Description:
Number of helices: 15
Strand content: 25-35%
Distance between the termini: 63 Å
Largest sheet: 9 strands, mixed
Amino acid sequence: xxxxxxxxxxxxxxxxxxxxxxxxxxxxxxxxxxxxxxxxxxxxxxxxxxxxxxxxxxxxxxxxxxxxxxxxxxxxxxxxxxxxxxxxxxxxxxxxxxxxxxxxxxxxxxxxxxxxxxxxxxxxxxxxxxxxxxxxxxxxxxxxxxxxxxxxxxxxxxxxxxxxxxxxxxxxxxxxxxxxxxxxxxxxxxxxxxxxxxxxxxxxxxxxxxxxxxxxxxxxxxxxxxxxxxxxxxxxxxxxxxxxxxxxxxxxxxxxxxxxxxxxxxxxxxxxxxxxxxxxxxxxxxxxxxxxxxxxxxxxxxxxxxxxxxxxxxxxxxxxxxxxxxxxxxxxxxxxxxxxxxxxxxxxxxxxxxxxxxxxxxxxxxxxxxxxxxxxxxxxxxxxxxxxxxxxxxxxxxxxxxxxxxxxxxxxxxxxxxxxxxxxxxxxxxxxxxxxxxxxxxxxxxxxxxxxxxxxxxxxxxxxxxxxxxxxxxxxxxxxxxxxxxxxxxxxxxxxxxxxxxxxxxxxxxxxxxxxxxxxxxxxxxxxxxxxxxxxxxxxxxxxxxxxxxxxxxxxxxxxxxxxxxxxxxxxxxxxxxxxxxxxxxxxxxxxxxxxxxxxxxxxxxxxxxxxxxxxxxxxxxxxxxxxxxxxxxxxxxxxxxxxxxxxxxxxxxxxxxxxxxxxxxxxxxxxxxxxxxxxxxxxxxxxxxxxxxxxxxxxxxxxxxxxxxxxxxxxxxxxxxxxxxxxxxxxxxxxxxxxxxxxxxxxxxxxxxxx
Length: 756
């Protein structure tokens, strides 16, 4: 759009009408000192079968069911006079892809005109490694995904846009409070020998080799008279809609309640948002269940705490836990040990005396990966809640935004008064193929490799051609394994055009980083950008690094860490001066905001949007049942009685869960229901977003499959009669007719839960 930076957004008249009649745009200049705040959460789980999980790049680590749903959590802030606004969206995905962002912006423009744009919308991935792949356009990521999945791509786009729409519809006056504090005992640096490459004088300024500080925002609504009036009108509308729904068809709760945020009648807290540096890799690369990992569990606990009486994924309060400079930060705090001998392998090469690098793995504090994710997530949640409860410093001041597209392969960086360096065309080094202590590759390549290998070089040259002298020189001392910047078939393998973006609200600046900063990279970056703001009159800014935003470009190490060529350095794709380039580019944005010259900045070269991507090779085949059986029929029944702490397991005749990503008539794959005498009916206690439930999908031959549902009975479960329901969709194909997707359900026999 022609609107750049902090140019004034158009007023209500220019906004296409929202499908829900609601006061969506702030009335001009009401007398209050806060912001208009809107919050929205929507499902963006995508496929939970027949797709790779994104993050570890491990062949064969495909989705085979669900531990938790994935959500997109949006908050919108507008100035009190409604002139400027920003939308920040934290999405439970490994990262945001450029294609995802471009499509979301396109849909927002067609609905809201120039209200939500490339400069004032930030999309950030939480970096869970247990979400679906398949939503990328650059060839390397498509290969890692084993194809582009339009089904999942459309699901993700719709979920992200829906969360923004709900937030837009919910704008109401409120205040924002900021707080900061350290979270102890949840992280280690997974490349400590790289960190030690940084100058001793710099390291001496910090007490730890990870950033332990969490920044939190608490957003509360104002309990003003005027708002009460709006709320009463909303309530009347809602009761009317509820009545219509109840008369129309049997339904326990109205979707309009959550959509209109009406339950805020009794709530003061709207939203909690935080940024913290940790890899959501408590769930390791043996996992096949889609889930949101440790940061998702923190969000789940906070939302469950505030939304009492609601099922997970429902209720007015939204808690976003966004990623930060997590590049070298692992939650597997017991550190790396050789899986065969138990001895430590915390060495520069992360390798074991027997078995080499593929034996060196870090583990979390729990009995298994599920337990570790919850221990780490709970600790993050508990600290976040303390910081939320004690937050008292109010954020005030205008909302600004600045954004540019930059060709990252060709940035000249002023290193000092005499020396200019340049970024490189993208390339990955040997240690990229080693993986990390959180997920080893299994290849006999170690981290810290600074020399090429004739065997691998020859294979690469035969398959892909030789890297140019120019790219080899530019990336030194990185030995190039894949010269992705010179590979263009069928489409470029890596992005050239990258987003740089800052949004500010008062004294808070959120920097949208298109990749993973290491700990020290994040520290240098924040300090430099803060200094630039200060130089031009914006004093005491808090600069937050928001990771995995807008487009994925792997890692960004410091120049010194780059020399050691461990995994993070080998994955710093634009060469040794990448961090310096980002510091320069983001400093320019900070200066433009501080001097009110954003409108004069060029928008930069527009990124491509490729057609005809390599599609997934997994066919859509019709689902079948065993002879004489129906979809949803119970194959292995529940026992008649269980104690608290035990696991209920029921197996049904299943169908491919990816069908449910196309036909979304059911909002959940499963429910655990308790019989309530008082209403003489079954009440839903848990759904598939609950961490106590798991759906395992077992793929058989020629369209046959089973679905096993497990419920880990928690201590909080009330004794009584329960049942489990399974909701699925089967693909039906008749000769020469288009395929149809049909909904079905299955119900277990009732069983009793007794106290221990």
